Amino acid sequence: MKGEIVLEARDLSMHFGGVHAVDQVNFALWDNELRCLIGPNGAGKSTFFKCLTGQHVPTHGDVVIRDVHVAGREPHQIARLGVGIKTQVPNVFDGLSVEENIWLSARRWHKAQRAKVLTQETLERLALGDIRSAIVGTLAHGQRQWVELGMVVAAEPWLVLLDEPAAGMTHEEVETTAELIREVNKTATMIVVEHDMQFIRMISNKVTVFHEGRILIEDTMDVISADERVREVYLGHKSQ
Amino acid sequence: MTWNRENKWRAGLVVLGVIFLFAAPNVFQLFTIINMTTAIAFAILALSLGLIWGYGGILCFGQTAFFGLGAYAYTVAAINFGGSTWAILVAILVAMLVAAVLGYFVFYGRVSDVYLAVITLTATLILYSLMRRTSGPEYKIGKSLLGGFNGITSPPLNMPWDTSQVLFPEHVFYVAMAALILAYILCSWLVQTQFGRVSVAIRENELRAELLGYDIRFYKMALFTVGGGIAAVAGVVFCNGVGRVTPDVFNLYNTALTIIWVIVGGRGTLIGPVLGAILLFYLTSSLGTQAVLNNNLVLGAILILFVLLVPKGIVPSFTEWWDNRRALRTSRRKEVRMRRRRSRLAEANGEAGDER
User: Fold this and answer.
1) In angstroms, how far is the first alpha carbon of chain B from the final one?
2) Which one of A23, A59, B31, B152 has the fewest CB atoms closer than 10 angstroms to its CB?
3) How close does chain B come to A94, measured CA to CA in Å?
């Protein structure tokens, strides 16, 4: 891999009582990479994700984003480093309009004038222009996911962390989302947590597989889908 | 700030307020005017809670703490300074400082909504018992005795920096109404600034606001502090209207009443709480003159009725009804136009058929 490491997890552990949700994970992300995290339910990928975004304070270990130690920091401090985050459950401002949602993201990092332009551009980019004044809470699930993606994109982050961006979307929506992610990847380094294998095939070159709080394997999608252990983890033990 | 429909409404309300400000003393008797001053004080208090609860999502169950602190700080400072000009400023600053300190612990400690309500309520009740126990001559701040249960007589307002010109009750009314209008304008402006919009966003979804990079603790504390300052202005107006300040400003009844005003008037609007406060003030004072129904019973019934039947409050329900009516009308007009066009078309076709 060329470039420098922009995000690193060192010996990262997250314990809930006796449950080791994340167990001594060492993880490195290179500049401009688009990395997918996969794994069965309870593999610890979402917990790992939450440690990266500051929603959890890790029990042990550290997360380093561009030489800044961020473990235990507030989510807004991590976002302030230029990190765009989308959570698993759509986290949007339900009572506000689509435009206001996007604007709130753009305005955080840019002056009023530029924020207006960015909001406009993002609405067009995500084809949300027709529903710009709609209240987000009244929209369909897929559209709300898009509004959240729009909020992430509007801030022009250099590092983007997405937790299940295609969850609950129709097949067409998934394809458009994949396209958008590839486009965003041109200017930003990304981590995408996903379930949908087809979706991962559309976007990713390198995949990290989580299993029981640890990293099982890290390779290209072709190698991973051929790997015996991964199949076992996903489908349970193979029948005779 | 854009000149949208909402702001036109707000501007209209301000104009009405100004007209009322100048007209009322010429229309009503002095007793009514003095009574109104108290109602206006409550309206400002309701506005302050409407701002932080309706827009910031901060359910402060003890907004009267800042109201009472404002009244006490004004009175004590005015006695010590021998004039009201700086005392008003002191009142606002004291309340804002207390709000900022309390807000710091509550918001930076990430206390959840319910506990926030409990803590603010408790703070108010502590002030209540504290001030009731200050009756001895040893309890004094500078020249001002605190007076315990009986409270302190509040020095009347004077013209700015001119202690020889003391304001009469009808002048205090002007000041009160002007304070209400200014507070309303301030709040209307504030909720449209970036700060206000982010505060609303935090009310909608704290986590999302944080993930966008907003320090929600700071925003909440700041909004809470502004609310405390406005409540203090209400306190200053109140003790000038009544002529004294007693520990009762902190009692449970007033604290609960503030919440009821906002619920009845409507959260998420600014004029709602103002109207709610004035409406209920006159309702309770008219109930006070009769002996058939218990005052508190009626208030309780109103609260329950509103929570069950008009949960959004008067103003939001009204605007909703108004918008629906307008939408219905325009759609009906459209339909009529379509029908006319269709019949005209049919006629034209019929004529064409005849010719053939």
Assistant:
1) 63
2) B31
3) 7
At B99 the pLDDT is 97
* Average pLDDT of the residues of chain A: 87
Cβ separation B213–A151 shorter than 8 A: no
The DSSP secondary-structure symbol of B356 reads: -
Q: Inter-chain contact A91–B208, Cβ cutoff 8 Å?
A: yes
Q: What is the largest CA-CA distance in chain A?
A: 65
Residue type, A1: M
DSSP A140-180: -HHHHHHHHHHHHHHT--SEEEEESTTTT--HHHHHHHHHH
Domain residues for the domain of A104 are 89-156
* C-alpha distance from B117 to closest chain A C-alpha (Å): 23
Query: How many domains does chain A divide into?
Result: 2
Query: A133 CA to chain B: closest CA distance, Å?
Result: 14
Confidence of residue B13 (pLDDT cuts 50, 70, 90): very high
Distance, in Å, from the CA atom of A238 to the CA atom of B41, rounded to the nearest integer, reads 75
CATH number of B5-312: 1.10.3470
Whether residues A55 and B213 touch (CB distance < 8 A) is answered with no
Digit-coded pLDDT (tens) for B324-337 = 898 888 888 888 88
Q: Which of B192, B106, B81, B318 is nearest to A103 (CA)?
A: B192
